[in-house]
């Protein structure tokens, strides 16, 4: 059964759109929970979550209700005025995180852009103009603006655009000795993801994170924790830094914060905020009443024992089912991740077929992702139904059999 008149099709992409992407062969037109339907009514189980964004699935009834209510009140006022939903959301985030203040943006890249600018601004104002060095990690990903993609440790995304911002150093992830070898009094910040999402679902170990906190304190540098992908319950805690018993100086959020509505946030400690002056940064749409209203409802739903404990339970289902598959077919060298950010590291012989596997999985009715060059990534809704997990695993297994002839 067709769900639309199909006036538009995938072949029109190259006619109308700048080809930054290579989208799927199907066009989604309807979503409900963890299910998506294309123009022809075909069902797909969504293990991608819109790249870890649709934290409560598609068209959650409470989010739809919130958006409808706010849309009849106030859409936009810019940063000329504050609005009540933004104040409400800021207070909630501060109350459940660390002593800080909030800046709202429209995306994770913008939140990180603000974080990196403010880290340098703070160090310049408080110490000296030579304290500009940013330490980041190989295979990290922090956004697509020129500053954030330069701080990111994947040069395929930053090469080819001319001279990059200076004083950015990349060292191996989870290697504290490498950090110790480059940090000095000129370092203004260390930027880290608790789990490298685009870098292959690599989880930071506890000693590494504790060591970064210690080194930042020792050298009067800021610890910037990028939780654009891991924040808002993705790992079974509201923020992934809670797993390590530390607190950041700056925290960035996006993706799951809006449950599909574009919003990002940067939280900065009072020490950092005290150096900020009016006008040094801003955003026309940041803190939009529509986005903040939706994010308020998302936060209220996620920040409950039912959802957060449920993430860990659902991870165990994935882990058990994927281990059974691997014990039988021996395709993965690792099953890794935390909570509902799961990585399947393919054995070297099978890596060349990852893109084919993603395509065939879609043909079987399941949407999955790639992370790095050799990892399949699952990042479904935090409240995906158990039955949809099992159904999705069955479809994924069918795709594996087709691609690898097993």
The total count of strands amounts to 17
Strand order of the largest sheet: 4-12-11-10-7-5-6
Average pLDDT confidence is 96
Low-confidence stretches: none
Helix content: 25-40%
Our count of helices gives 14
Report strand %: 15-25%
How many angstroms separate the termini?
33 Å
The biggest beta sheet is recorded as: 7 strands, mixed
Computed Rg: 21 Å
Sum up the overall morphology in one term: globular
Q: What structural category do the secondary elements indicate?
A: alpha/beta
Features:
single chain; 406 residues; alpha/beta; four-stranded mixed β-sheet; globular
SSE arrangement:
Elements: H1 13-16, E1 28-32, E2 35-38, E3 43-46, H2 49-52, H3 61-71, H4 84-96, E4 100-105, H5 108-126, E5 133-137, H6 146-151, H7 155-158, E6 168-171, H8 176-182, E7 187-192, E8 195-196, E9 202-203, H9 206-218, E10 222-226, E11 250-253, E12 264-269, H10 270-273, H11 289-302, H12 305-329, E13 332-338, E14 341-346, H13 354-364, E15 366-367, E16 369-371, E17 375-378, H14 386-404
Parallel strand pairs: 3-15, 5-6, 5-7, 7-10, 10-11
Antiparallel strand pairs: 1-2, 2-3, 4-12, 8-9, 11-12, 13-14, 14-17, 16-17
Helix pairs in contact: 3-11, 4-11, 12-14, 13-14
